[in-house]
Structures are given as C-alpha cells and as structure tokens.
Amino acid sequence: MTVVLMFLGVMTGTTGHAQASPQQATASTTICSNTPVPAGWVITHSTPSRNCPATRVEYSISDSNGQTYFDVCSFSPIPAGWAVTGSYSGSIKCAGSGVDYTIKNTAGLTTTLSVCSFSPIPTGWVVTGSYSGSRNCAGSGVDYTIKNTAGQTRVWTCSFSPIPAAWVVTAAGSSTSCAGSGVEYTLENVTNQTYALVCSYSPIPTGWIVTASSSTTSCVGTTRAFSLRKA
After folding, report:
1. Closest C-alpha to 121, from 97, 104, 102, 99
2. For the segment 205-227, what is each residue's pLDDT rounded down to a tens digit?
3. What is the pTM (predicted TM-score) of this model?
4. Rounded CA gap, 4 and 129, in Å?
5. 3-state SS string over the chain?
6. N or C: which end of the chain has fewer CB within 10 A?
C-alpha cells in the first residue's frame, strides 16, 4: 500500500464552506470501495475508477491519528472521539452521496462544541442544547451543543443526551433549549458520593442499589424518586 504524504486544510473546497487551518502531514492511500476501511482512517474522496472492477468506485482514505480536522464523505466511518460539526450537500468529491461532513477531534477539548444532531457523541460528553434551523447541518437542520463532563460534578442536559457512567438524573423540567423533547435533566456525578436521590428513570450506576421509593414533583415525566446507596 503506497503511502502519500499530504497536507490537510489546504485543499480547495467545492461546497463553499470554510476550510480548516493547515495541520501536520498525514498518511493517505486509495482503496476499492469494497475494501474495509482500517480503524481510525476516514474516507476523504470517492470517485469512479476502472482500477476496481467489482465496484467501479475508489476511495481516498487518510489516517486520523494526530489530526484535528477533516472533511470526509458522509459515508465515512467516524473515529472514536470525533464529532460531526458540519454537513454540506452538493459535494463533487463524494460520489455516491454528494454530501460531505466536517469532523473534529474532541481530544483535549474542555469547551462546548456545536455539532450536527446525527453526530456521534464522544464518550464523556453530553448534549446541553438542541436548536432547529441550522444551515450547517444538511440532512437534519438541527445542531446540538455538547459539553465535556471531565472535571464536572453537575451538568444540565437535554433528556435525549447520553448519560455518562457514574452520573445520575436528580431532577428534570421543561426547557426551550432542547428542541426535540423540551425537557432538561439535571445530572450529578456520584463517583465520590455514597447516597443520592434520583428520578425513577435515572440510570443506576454499577455498584449502587435502590433503598427506597418516594413521591416527587422535581422530575417531569414521573412522580417517583429513588433513594440510592453505594453497595
């Protein structure tokens, strides 16, 4: 497999959206579309090709290791820890869909990030807002604001947000910041706690047990709260 060094972020886009700043060189190569894409690699181009008799389609792929931004085809695998920050139709470099994604590596980020609603949510991140009418997310028109929970003990999330391990739902109420559900959760990290009072639909962290049930008005969607204790 021939490895070609190329600089990302200096290629001219065909969809008119902003390009990422130049970054370090990365390894790239071409494969036929029926060849598995190696873990951590992404598809940056898709073109008709006589070199691939079975499919007539060739992919250009690049290694995401050590990179920050990529423009990829919408059918590209998204590496773990990466998120889709933009989606653009009309791409001539992605035969088969005509849609490309801008993806960002979230490793080391501590600030909030705006992503498309169909983006994978990296482990440890939560959805704190949902907004319709986005021009940056062709295919849904909805973007999410996501936040890294590292170093946090309490966060407010939309009800459809993933809930990280060792976090529980302690309250829930109506919110105009969560298009799609209109419900916001209060989440707390119980890693350093031994007791918690949670909404009945809260996940029960590994190693915790329910010791009692009581009525509550603090959890929209249920009238029951559970008392939890670390076993």
Report:
1. 104
2. 999 999 999 999 999 999 999 99
3. 0.85
4. 40
5. CCCEEECCCCCCCCCCCCCCCCCCCEEEEEEECCCCCCCCEEEEEEEECCCCCCCCEEEEEEECCCCCEEEEECCCCCCCCEEEEEEEECCCCECCCCEEEEEEECCCCCCCEEEECCCCCCCCEEEEEEEECCCCECCCCEEEEEEECCCCCEEEEECCCCCCCCEEEEEEEECCCECCCCEEEEEEECCCCCEEEEECCCCCCCCEEEEEEEECCCECCCCEEEEEEEC
6. N
Alpha carbons 112 and 219: distance in angstroms, whole number: 26
Contact 47, 31 (CB under 8 A): no
Tens of pLDDT, residues 171-198: 999 999 999 999 999 999 999 999 999 9
Q: What CA–CA distance (Å, rounded) separates 4 from 94?
A: 20
Instruction: Show the tokens assigned to 211.
Output: 């010791």
Give the span between the Cα atoms of 120 and 136, in whole angstroms: 16
Contact 76, 53 (CB under 8 A): no
Tokens of 99: 């849609």
Extract the tokens encoding 9.
Answer: 């972020």
**What burial class does residue 127 get, using C-beta atoms within 10 Å of its C-beta: 0-12 exposed, 13-18 middle, 19+ buried?**
buried
Residue 16 region, left (φ>0) first, then alpha (ψ -120 to 50), else beta?
A: left
